[in-house]
Each structure stands twice: as structure tokens, then as C-alpha cells.
Design a protein that fits this description.
The protein is mostly helical and about 220 residues long. It is built from six helices and eight strands.
Length: about 220
Amino acid sequence: MTDCLLCEQPDETGGYLCPGCTKATVGRLNALPGLYDELLPFLTPGSGGSTGRRSTAVSAPLPVSEMVLSLRGPGGVVGVVEDWLAAVRDARRMRPVTPVGSVESRLRAAVRSLVDNMPWISVSWPDAGTFAEEIRDLERVGVSVVDPADRSERGTRVGTCPAVDDGGVICGAVLRYQPGAKLVVCSWCGCTYPPATWQGLRAWIDHDENHPGANTQVLNAS
């Protein structure tokens, strides 16, 4: 009997990963392509926003989210998975493979290969614990972006920020009210909405979501 290198619980199979952690790792691997796709709307905070009316933002939003860009870039999710596949193939004395195609197709191909190798990884590879831990952490980072576990820390969703920068680009980031806060602050563009504007803000957002493109009264945000 050995201890699983991931959960550190006794494993009667004598391998490096217990059956439960092996199954969980396969599930995490299979989830990565879908998670990669789900990250796309979070690359730019305004990409999924409404076409709400416009108020002046304190500053223009950054063009991309650096975290999401890193996860979706060549050295992100696909880079981690391909590096581990290369390590597995090297350990098994298999010929190296050269990734081809789009990032999405490369990721799917690498995931399939790693899943196919999981029976060997879990039983015969001393690096199985480090591999499984990094795949688990990679999934957690992605999920923390698309579906944060502790929603209470994010506050109550008000709507999408209708502020616009000097170039006419609507912010569109999600506005949230934090309990006890004296202002609703857009975490992306920095535009602030004091209590006197909250009722108008909510009505404004509701109107624009129900009547996209319609003209509404401009809300004065500080």
C-alpha cells in the first residue's frame, strides 16, 4: 500500500495516484477545452456588456484582462498541457510531437493524449502527483474567473457599467454593490455612482437591457 501523491491518502492499488484522484484528474483535463472557450468573454470586460447609455468614465479601460490573456495565450492553458504531454512522452521514450493548428485544436489534442496516458501516469509515473496538482490548480484558476466560488465577496450585481471612454467605447463591466459601501464603483474603468444615482442607474440599465439602442436620459456619474 502506498499514499496517493495528490490527496496523500492510503492507496491499496499501490500506484502514484489513487483511483479517485485519477478519475478527478481525467475530469479536469477533459474540462480544460471548454473552460478555455468560456474564458473568451472575460478577455475584455465590455465584450459581453449591454448597449447602455453613456456617462463619462474616470479613465479608459485596459484593452484586455492580463490574467485571461495569460490563460488563453500560448504559454497558458495550452502551454501547461503540452509541456506535461511532452514530459510524459519523454518518460515513455516516445517520439516528440510538434503542436500544429489553432490553440483550441492543440489543446484538445494534448488533452486527449494525456487522458489516453492516464492509466500509465497513475500507476507508473513518479511525477504523477505534481502533474495532477498542476492540472487541478490550472482548472481552479480558470474557474475562479468564469465562476468564482465565493460570490459573497463579489457583492450584489447591479448591472453593467454604462460609462464610455473618450473614444466612444462603452465599458460594459459588471457593477456590484458591496454591503456598507457608499458608492458603486466600476472595478474596471473606475467610474463611481453615488447613492443619489442608484435608482436612476438601475432603471437606466433595465431600460437599455430591454430596449437596446433606445435613447435614454443621461445619468450623471462622478
